[in-house]
Amino acid sequence: MVISLSNQIILLTGASRGIGKAIAETLGEAGATVALHYNFNKLEAEKIADRIGNHSHAFQADLSRPAEAVRLGEEVLAFYGKVDCLVNNAGIAESVSMEMGFEAWVESWQKTQQVNLLSAALLSKELLPAMIKNRGGRLIHIASRAAFRGDTPDYLAYAASKGGMVAMSRSLARAYGKQGIKSFVVAPGFTRTDMAQQFMDEYGEGYALNDIALSQLTEPQDIAPTILFLASGHMDHATGCSIDINAGSYVR
Ligand SMILES: NC(=O)c1ccc[n+]([C@@H]2O[C@H](COP(=O)([O-])OP(=O)(O)OC[C@H]3O[C@@H](n4cnc5c(N)ncnc54)[C@H](OP(=O)(O)O)[C@@H]3O)[C@@H](O)[C@H]2O)c1
Description:
The protein is built from 9 helices and 7 strands. It has about 250 residues and is α/β, with parallel strands linked by helices. The chain has one domain (about 10-245): Rossmann fold (3-Layer(aba) Sandwich), CATH 3.40.50. The chain is globular, with a radius of gyration of 17 Å. The two termini are about 30 Å apart. The model has no long low-confidence stretch (mean pLDDT about 95). It binds NADP nicotinamide-adenine-dinucleotide phosphate (NAP). NADP nicotinamide-adenine-dinucleotide phosphate binds near residues 18, 19, 40, 90 and 190. NADP nicotinamide-adenine-dinucleotide phosphate binds near residues 14, 18, 38 and 144.
């Protein structure tokens, strides 16, 4: 089977590093035009856009600010005239101890929900009307194993944000299917990126390795092909589903 995404415009958040970078490169190899979103890593996002070609372009937005998520959606729509697929990948995983004081705890919870959940919801909301007008579109949400298995107490806010993402994706799939919208969740386990490094610095690499059924930690390149397949349309009748990619660490 040859998968071609040429003629597809795909907005991918958090494309400058880690899982997002691998997804961008895989989508680009299949011919997609990728709107690469970044927050701080402009240079890297622009380099990836140049490498991919296909009129791919980098767009900045701080997704901890709701208005910026809306602006990002508007900017990308204005730039390309349409978006066929949105990949909500940008995310943060802050460790916030149960012993932390009220203000810092609330602040971290709010920031986590803004970046991981609210911005994903706002981008979906912003792009839906244009997708429906364009006879359909696909929403792919990168959640986490934490949404299903739960996480450690320090990552309560993170797990809750990803659980919210799953409920949102299922709702969108059920509500807008007749209008051509498909919505999917991909739920990675530990994947070797800056985000996982932060957890491994805290708990050790052995903790992550002991947890999985395979002998090697998942790499960003192990996640990207699933996104390509979902974006291709071959999985449309699985709309509403969640796909685990966690090296057998949580089988449900
Ligand atoms: N790595 C794992 O073990 C793992 C496991 C399960 C799920 N996930 C999920 O997979 C997704 C990607 O994770 P990753 O490991 O690739 O993360 P990462 O390496 O830490 O990269 C995070 C990406 O999100 C962007 N980002 C962070 N804060 C942002 C903000 N305030 N506004 C806009 N963009 C922001 C970053 O942009 P800049 O670099 O440009 O600032 C970067 O592109 C996340 O949703 C994460 O929850 C990861």
